[in-house]
Amino acid sequence: MAARVALVHVDDPRVRWSVSAAQVVRILPAGDWRAPLIDVLAALGVAPGDDRHTRRVIIVRGGDGHELAVLAAGAIDIAEVDPADVLPLPDSVARASPQITAIVAFADHSLSLLLQPTAVLPPDDTVPGEELCPRRS
């Protein structure tokens, strides 16, 4: 039997999404965070969330060690899921949306997008590798 996978689930009114619990450094009340937040769903093209639903900030650690503050506009649940319930995306969708790594299927037949928040760039950031390309004048 495969080990269960721990995920942090956000029941955002727009779309339910999850991240690996191993990436989460801490979860804070929204009022305790003053720096800009990344709305991972808005970065994927979903309309921005309603501020009334902002409850928490999830701090995730990126591969480079930097921490990102992600908006959690909805109730948070931390739970383990069976790896068989983490469904891969079709290749075309995975290539088009690297921020979404899988779909999580729950026993109640609900779904959640498994996100890779570190693949979502803050609005003022650059495109990965852009700093390596010469600027055109």
List the helices and strands and how they pair.
Elements: E1 5-11, E2 16-20, E3 24-29, H1 40-43, E4 56-61, E5 67-72, E6 75-81, E7 86-88, H2 91-96, E8 100-105, E9 111-115
Parallel strand pairs: 2-9
Antiparallel strand pairs: 1-2, 1-6, 3-4, 4-5, 7-8, 8-9
Describe this structure in words.
There is one protein chain. The strands form two sheets. Strands 6-1-2-9-8-7 form a six-stranded mixed beta sheet, with no helix packed on it. 7% of the residues lie in helices and 37% in strands. The protein is globular. The protein has one domain (5-132). It contains two helices and nine strands. It is mainly beta.
Task: Summarize the entry for a quick read.
By secondary structure, the protein is mainly β.
What is the string of helix and strand elements? EEEHEEEEHEE
β content, as a range? 35-45%
Category from helices, strands and their pairing: mainly beta
| Number of discrete helical segments | 2
Strand line-up of the largest beta sheet: 6-1-2-9-8-7
Straight-line N-to-C gap: 58 Å
Which percent range fits the helix content?
A: under 10%
Overall, the morphology is globular
